[in-house]
Amino acid sequence: MKKVFGMTMVIALAMVLGSFTPAQAAPKKAHKKINTVQQHTQIININKASVDQLTTLKGIGLKKAQAIVAFRTQNGNFKKVEDIMLVKGIGQKLFDKMKPFITVK
């Protein structure tokens, strides 16, 4: 108990003297590195885009990109960007996220 109290006093004294902050007193947790798909900055033509290009759209992974290409192959080109919501798994919320980044022209 004396060690805990003594350590608390040392930390408190060090904080008062300004030698370090409370964040430095606690051990830092290692941050888990997360792989993310690089997001694009260009407009993508959903009638011509490859699977790889489609996966750069926010919310579109490999499966949805493949579904878009399959839908396009079976049904022809999209007439308007909203038609992408005809692809299974793409609803209004996902469409709203990608709308600024897609075109059919």
Under CATH, the topology of the domain at 44-103 is which?
Answer: DNA polymerase, domain 1
What strand line-up does the widest sheet have?
A: 1-2
The CATH class of the domain at 44-103 is identified as: Mainly Alpha
Radius of gyration: 26 Å
Approximate shape: elongated
Going by CATH, the architecture of the domain at 44-103 would be Orthogonal Bundle
**Helix count, DSSP H or I runs of 4 or more residues:** 5
> Would you list the SSEs in sequence order as H and E?
HHEHHHE
Descriptive overview:
This protein has 5 helices and 2 strands; from the N terminus they run H-H-E-H-H-H-E. It has a domain at 44-103: Photosystem II 12 kDa extrinsic protein (DNA polymerase, domain 1). 43% of the residues lie in helices and 4% in strands. It has helices spanning 2-17, 22-25, 51-54, 62-75, 92-98; strands spanning 44-45, 102-103. The radius of gyration is 26 Å and the shape is elongated. The protein has a two-stranded parallel ribbon. 10% of the residues are buried.
